[in-house]
Specification:
Blueprint (H helix, E strand, L loop, with lengths): L24 H26 L5 H21 L3 H16 L7 H28 L5 H25 L11 H18 L9 H13 L3 H5 L2 H23 L9 H20 L1 H39 L18
Helix pairs in contact: 1-2, 1-3, 2-5, 2-11, 3-4, 4-5, 5-11, 7-9, 10-11
């Protein structure tokens, strides 16, 4: 039998082992990558905002995209281990542009994001697994609530690194937005008092309102009224500057005057109360941002829901029913 080749089994060949991916595996990978990139973008925009190089509108847009993708990830990622890994990369990406900041602040920020963000993901995932129906807004509220809390704390911590006499938490760009809202509100009640103009014009309008009740002023001819008004307006401007304790230059805007007084007041409190003021101001800023974040989360939830419905209608994702056994305790 030497030299003979044994019979070969060419029929029952051993098949090469194939690796199968779960359905939607690559779709979730794409969403994870987009979420990490959005975190990187949010960190970049916020780092620019802290040095007054980026408008607050861009900051809101960046965090809006980041939070929308974070909300949608709850519905795409079933594994909590994988969700934690993605949150870890999102945290690292967001803090990347703050590498030169205090190490303790960065460590605290990273820990806060990981704990609260993942906590929200766990709550949202449990809601999806234990509910009979997918309740989108309830699920989104669970993850967004922790997301907003985490990043409100982190934004305040990072802003503390810029504590100085120039902005004291409020840059001129941010103050400009709130002052514009206040000016529009005041103009509804006092249309003759335009606080969006120069401080000279504001003083003149304020003086004119006061002189309208003066009988002697009313008895003057228009030319003399103008002379008296100009002199009284200059005195009003100087008097207000003295009361506010700031120097008001000719032609300076009312907004700049109010901002300088606001910063001077805060700096005075800071020097007087020192660390107590820092704690109090930090708490106040946190609750202001957290309150605004609650409104912001409603908008994010609505936009996320619209995108969620578009993904379903385009067959990118599906909703199916499934039966599952469940252990119960009897006694």
């Amino acid at each position: 039998n030497e030299g003979k080749i044994g019979s070969l089994n060419l029929v029952n060949q051993v098949r090469a082992e194939t690796i199968t991916r779960p359905r939607g595996f690559y779709k979730s990978i794409v969403l994870d990558c987009l979420a990490v990139l959005s975190a990187l973008g949010a960190g970049y925009v916020y780092s620019g905002y802290l040095i007054s190089a980026v408008a607050i509108a861009a900051l809101l847009a960046a965090f809006g995209i980041f939070s929308i993708l974070g909300t949608l990830q709850v519905f795409f990622t079933k594994s909590l281990g994988r969700r934690f890994l993605v949150i870890f990369f999102e945290t690292a990406a967001f803090l990347l542009y703050f590498y030169a900041y205090n190490l303790k602040s960065l460590g605290a920020s990273a820990l806060i994001i990981l704990i609260f963000y993942f906590w929200g993901a766990v709550l949202a995932r449990n809601e999806l697994q234990n509910g009979l129906k997918i309740k989108f807004f309830k699920t989104a509220r669970l993850v967004l609530g922790k997301f907003i809390t985490a990043f409100t704390l982190v934004l305040v911590i990072l802003y503390l690194q810029h504590w100085d006499k120039k902005n004291v938490f409020v840059s001129e760009n941010t103050f400009h937005i709130f002052f514009g809202w206040a000016a529009g509100f005041i103009s509804n009640f006092y249309p003759d008092l335009n606080i969006s103009s120069s401080f000279d014009k504001f003083s003149e309008n304020l003086t004119r309102i006061q002189l309208q009740e003066n009988a002697a002023y009313k008895a003057l001819n228009p030319d003399n009224q103008q002379v008296v008004l100009k002199k009284a307006a200059d005195e009003t401007r100087v008097s207000l500057g003295t009361r506010l304790g700031i120097s008001i230059s000719e032609g300076e805007t009312t907004e700049k005057v109010v901002y300088d007084f606001f910063v001077k007041t805060l700096n005075g409190w800071k020097d007087r109360f020192q660390w107590l003021f820092a704690v109090g101001w930090t708490i106040a800023v946190f609750f202001i941002l957290r309150g605004f974040g609650s409104i912001f989360s409603l908008l994010v939830s609505f936009v996320s829901f619209v995108i969620y419905q578009i993904l379903i209608s385009s067959d990118f994702m599906h909703i199916i029913g499934e039966s599952a056994t469940k252990e119960v305790i009897e006694f």
